[in-house]
Amino acid sequence: MKKIVNIKKTLALFTIFFVSFAFSQAKKPTIMIVPSDVWCNTNGYMMEFDNQGTKVKIPNYKKVFQENMDIKTVISKINTLMAERGFPLKDMESAIKTLEAESAENNLTSSKTGAGIAESPIDKIKKVAKADIIIQLTWETKQVGPKKSVNFILQGIDSYTDKQIAAAQGTGAPSFSAEIPVLLEEAVLAHVDNFNAQLQKHFDDMFENGREIIVRIKKFNGWSGNLEKQYDGQDLSVIIEDWIAKNTVKGRFNTSDATENTMLFEQVRIPLYDSKNRATDARGFLRGLQDYLKNAPYSIPNKLTMKGLGQAVIILGEK
């Protein structure tokens, strides 16, 4: 009897060890910290363009990192807090430099012909960094007499859907002498573990149920076919919907709109990683559907475009 009890205790200890080990080995979301639009606007780091008659303001991230030492120091300190808790980080300043090397910034503004901004600067940076979650940082300094304090807001944004999935805000203790980055670090420290728990919960859901993206199907005006054209007795729209159902995680998606010329799929859950363990985005996922429609028996030429990481469009009828 005593031997059986000992065996049970050993098994229980082994189970606890295995669960703890598995938890410690669990994948963490990759994160990139960026100054929020509000912070950029308040501190004069915005660019303004005429987008087909409408004034558009977008953050000038390059100028932020070239001129503001506080933001570099603050982001570095928060990066350290996240890294100490096992969250992999992507550096925004490095992503901006990569964009410059690829001359991607040439496409950030509206063209001379009046074409609109296809993607925002942060969309382009997301595609380079491939971070799962963007943390938008906003802070302001308050001064009462000789003492300074810092109010901050952290917003965890899913890079693919732009949905807020975590939040923290607070005010640090007033200080006579501490510098702003130190005050901010102390203020964030009291909230960072709860904030990280929210991030991890969202990532765990993605790991189990897939990333969420949006898929649109359109057609060029010059194409004689449409989504009601039949192949072996089935409408093309049904064929596309069946492909989506087969290739999504657990068949999870919503068909939000379907006409003879367009389809909209929302809450489309795609695998977190591909067969080569690379992060999957909307474009990578839809390449499969693009090839499927190009080949027999459909032989439909099509063009694949995307916005950011989480929205992609297949346009039928031309390349």
UniProtKB/TrEMBL annotation:
Keywords: Signal
Superkingdom of source: Bacteria
Database matches in InterPro entries: DUF6175
Residues in the signal sequence: 1-24
Protein name (database record): Uncharacterized protein
